Amino acid sequence: MKPTRFIDSVNCAIEGIIYTARTQKHMRNHFLSALLLLLTVLFLRVSALEFTLLTISVCFVLFAELMNTAIEVVVDLVSPEFHPLAKTAKDVAAGSVLMAAIGAGVMGYLILSKYIFPIYKEALGMIGTPTEMGILVSLLIVVIVVVILKSLSSKGTPLEGGLPSGHAAVAFSIATVVSFTTQDPLISILTITLAVMVSHSRLLLHIHTMREVLLGAITGTAITLVVLLLFKTMN
């Protein structure tokens, strides 16, 4: 029955939000991202206008996810069996969430970059520009360590499978090198994004597990940082 009291309507709305958060992993991720964003905003002390724009963007993403879930439930109710139009309806609804997330990401970048990038650039400058020798040595050591670890795990082949992921290790090693060489926050973020995409492809191809990919990323990043720091100390 349709609720007659305002408090009943509010309870129904809250139940809908809770249902979406309980059943939809993406909604939980959106809430977690919103929480991290709130903590970041409080730390950076953004202006009232910027906080308002970020809030609107976050609310729009959450709204799109709620509508996406509502459409999915209705489609499942009307068409429990597979139907091309049912799939199209769900795909379009999911596309609206993606568009909202892209808009929120652009808004967050435009507002937060001017606060975060100076801090990030200062952190990148702590090691300084690595030498060519330091770069080559760090990459070679990463490859050697990955081969040794793969041989110890006795799983997979040198180029496929095994612990850790060699692709992830090399990708994050290169991303670390590029970050410290350019000392440009935007270029650093883009190269790290490429490293993440390379690592994610190993998961999509079912060649590595999440544990193997994470260990590869940590191995590549840590070894590269240590080697670059050693070369800085020696010079």
Write the layout of secondary structure elements.
Layout: H1 6-23, H2 25-44, H3 48-78, H4 84-124, H5 132-153, H6 166-182, H7 185-204, H8 210-234
Helix pairs in contact: 1-2, 2-3, 3-4, 5-6, 5-8, 6-7, 6-8, 7-8
What does this structure look like?
With 235 residues, the chain is mostly helical. It has 2 domains: 6-119, Helix Hairpins, CATH 1.10.287; 132-234, no CATH class. Helix content is 83%, strand content 0%. The chain contains 8 helices and no strands. The protein has helices at residues 6-23, 25-44, 48-78, 84-124, 132-153, 166-182, 185-204, 210-234. Helix 1 (6-23) packs across helix 2 and helix 2 (25-44) packs antiparallel against helix 3. It is globular, with a radius of gyration of 23 Å. The mean pLDDT is 86.
| Arithmetic mean of pLDDT | 86
Specify the number of helices. Answer: 8
- Could you state the order of secondary-structure elements as H and E? HHHHHHHH
Question: Terminal Cα separation, in Å?
Answer: 77 Å
Task: Provide a brief overview of the structure.
With 235 residues, the chain is mainly alpha-helical.
Main attributes of the structure:
8 helices; globular; mainly alpha; 235 residues; single chain; 2 domains; 0% strand; Helix Hairpins
